[in-house]
Amino acid sequence: MSDIANKVRGASPSQPPPSHRGQGTGWSSHIATILDSDLFYSFWRSKLVVAAAILTALLVGAALLAPLIAPHDPYDLKSLDLVNADMPPAWNSRGDRRFLLGTDDQGRDILSTILYGTRSSLLIGIASVLLAVAIGVTLGLWAGYAGGRADSFIMRIADVQLTFPAILTALLIDGVALAIFKSYRMEGGKFWILVISIGLAYWVQYARTVRSVTLVERNKEYVEAARLIGLSPLKIMFQHILPNVLSPVLVIATINLALAIITEATLSFLGVGLPPTEPSLGTMIQVGNKYLFSGSWWMVAFPGLMLALLALAVNLLGDWLRDALNPKLR
Amino acid sequence: MLAFTIRRLFEALVVMLTVALLAFVLFRYVGDPVSQMVGQDTSLEDRTRLRLELGLDDPVYIQFARFVGNAVRFDFGISYQVKQPVTRLIAERMPATIELALAAALFAVALGIPMGVYTGIHRDSWLSKLFLTVSLIGISLPTFLIGILLIYIFAVWLNVLPSFGRGDTIPIGFWRTGLLTASGLKALVLPAITLGLFQMTLVTRLVRSEMLEVLRTDYIKFARARGLPERAINFGHALRNTLVPVITVIGLQLGSIIAFAIITETVFQWPGMGLMFIQAVQHADIPVMAAYLLLVAFLFVLINFIVDLIYVRIDPRIRILRRGA
Fold first, then answer.
1. Which of A93, B8, B79, B315 has the CA that lies 20 to 30 A from B234?
2. A198-210: b (≥16 Cβ within 10 Å) or e
């Protein structure tokens, strides 16, 4: 449908009026806005952005398809053999053909572990960004639309949290959760603890942005009309105002995805993230770091490179999106 | 000005009390403080006595008031893990973190400002593009990865700099400094670069964009028309006017340097407060966590407060705006 929608949109002015039309829901009209031809023009113009997009797609694809394309299964403890531990990459004379990028201290294939690790890093990153968006957008809409006491209360909390760097907030929530759940042995639980700590650390920016847009939108005629026909405030906020605040949210979310991935890796590296049995890029780097002095550079170099490439590519995409969606810079 | 100061002071107090409440809840309700402090074979009577001594049977608001009172007198209780007063642990660790943070800030400013000025003046030279590319990579790379990379190059490969610890330290009063010995200075280099790199890219970008803005203004054009030398225009007129936002940002960044010191200290096993905090988190050592939380919050609130006041003093426009309102 995007092709047709694009051709139709291409002829109309690039910024559709804020109220959404009869056809389609708020979401589909927003997607059509994103696929606006101006955006695609600025996308194809920059080779760097195209390269970043291809790289992101490749890395994400490889990570999501990890169970299909990885030569080994790092979760399968039976396949591990300590004889294979600490092997350099295949092109090294001591290397083994079966392990293209070498093995780690437990004999796990680095390539497979990176694929699986990137998968959990990405999943945690995406889940925590979704959580942050959900919290931030809801509170932002509420603060902006309701105003008064709710507004000043929410924004006060946002201000206080903004005083602290997000990584510190995430670390604190993570640390407290660890202390609370220390007595429970939860294997999958660490995943959600990480998602919640990172999500709670990054909601503020969304709330502030959404609030400032909502403050403008709520006085417009279409909101007044919606109020006049007796729609509930919830319906007005989420069905009428929400579509108009989504493009800045999308920009922040893209940039925050890179930040969330880095935060997860950092927490795991600090030893308060995922346990080594559940590989993520951060835990791999943490383990590899211990073997740096014995010359086993491959254990930290490849996951490190993967993390750097992923963060860089997503960052470039976010930067481009910000410039492209900002009408002032066009 | 006085009303403004008082209002900011009041706000700072509210923030501190909120953080104190968080720290108190953490201390009081995450796990049982008594069973954390005693051994497994402590009798029930001893436990009850300790409970009474700590005042854990008092009403919650009295306990909170006592907690705040103790915190004001820098009494944060005994660490669960090492069984020493938290205050002493912090006093031992603080000099290391402060020296590291200052060295990192110095590195960021000493390199960031010249790079920002250069890229601002020579917008399209290849060196500017190189600086900006490097700064983009510096922002994208996580701190700990930069640290590991530096360790690999300078400690493992070239073997010229140490990769962990502080080297030899000399006590000056209670302050153990590593700045006066050769090994201490050598040990400081890699951690300071790791910690300062992100701030450096930030300063570079900020100075660059401010320079670009200022160089377009009329008084710069007028200075050119008067035939002043390029150097006097760039440094005497332009750079000086970019410094207000730069000082503000550096001031605010001091706080985040302290926070990111946690990561750097872990990578380099630097015996500062950040490493202490991470070890406390790993061992669920609540009193240390609570104390660190309060201390960092205090530092942040203090820095924000000072920056706010300086801002009002430096920039007359804000003062006039406030008087009008």
1. B315
2. bbbbbbbbbbbbb
Residues B40, B66 within the same domain:
yes
Consecutive sets of 10 residues in chain B, 325 residues long: mean pLDDT of each?
Answer: 80 85 79 69 77 75 82 80 84 89 91 89 85 78 87 85 80 77 85 90 88 85 86 80 78 81 90 88 82 86 81 64 48
Contact criterion met (CB < 8 Å) for B255 and A297: no
pLDDT of residue A277: 75
Q: Is the same domain home to B139 and B208?
A: yes
The backbone torsions φ and ψ at residue B171, rounded to the nearest 5 degrees and listed phi first, read -80, 130
| Residues 6+ away with beta carbon under 8 Å from B210 | B116, B120, B241, B242, B245, B246
Instruction: Mark yes or no for CB contact B259/A297 under 8 Å.
Output: no
| Proportion of chain A above pLDDT 70, given as a percent | 76
Claim to verify: residue B232 and residue B147 sit in the same structural domain = yes
B6 located within any domain = yes
Count the neighbouring beta carbons within 10 Å of the beta carbon of residue A272: 21
Q: Is the pLDDT of residue A15 over 70?
A: no
**How many separate domains does chain B show?**
2
Is B143 close to A266, i.e. CB distance below 8 A? Answer: yes
CATH code: domain of residue B212: 1.10.3720.10
Six token digits for residue B53: 């001594």
The whole-angstrom separation of Cα B240 and Cα B113 is 11
Question: Choosing among A169, A172, A320, which should be mutated to test the B contact, i.e. which has the most B CBs within 10 A?
Answer: A172
| Beta carbons of B72 and B298 less than 8 angstroms apart | no
∠A256-A260-A263 over CA atoms, to 5°?
135
Q: Which residues on chain B are in Cβ contact (under 8 Å) with A262?
A: 142
In terms of pLDDT, which residue wins out, B33 or A199? Answer: A199
Kindly provide the ipTM of the predicted complex, given to two decimals: 0.79
Cβ–Cβ below 8 Å for B255 and A312: no
Tokens standing for residue A274 = 């995922």
How crowded is residue B308: how many other Cβ atoms within 10 Å of its Cβ? Answer: 18
Same structural domain, B237 and B141? yes
Name the strand (E) or helix (H) holding A1: none
Amino acid at A256: N
What b-and-e string marks burial along A9-27, b requiring 16 or more CB atoms within 10 Å of the CB?
beeeeeeeeeebeeeeebe
What amino acid is encoded at A308 in this protein? A
3-state DSSP call for residue A88? coil
Tokens in use for B102?
């200052």
Residue-range definition of the domain harbouring residue B106: 86-324
Structure-block tokens of residue B192: 């300071």
Q: What is the DSSP letter of A73?
A: -
Last residue in a domain, options B43, B72, B101: B72
Position A6 confidence tier, pLDDT thresholds 50, 70, 90 = very low
What's the full length of chain B, in residues? 325
H and E: helices and strands count for chain A: 15, 0
Q: How far is A180 from chain B (nearest CA, A)?
A: 6
Enumerate the residues of chain A whose CB falls inside 8 A of the CB of residue B156.
292-293, 295
| Same-domain status, B48 and B116 | no
B178 lies in the same domain as B302: yes
Residues 6 or more apart in contact with residue A172 via CB below 8 angstroms: B289, B293
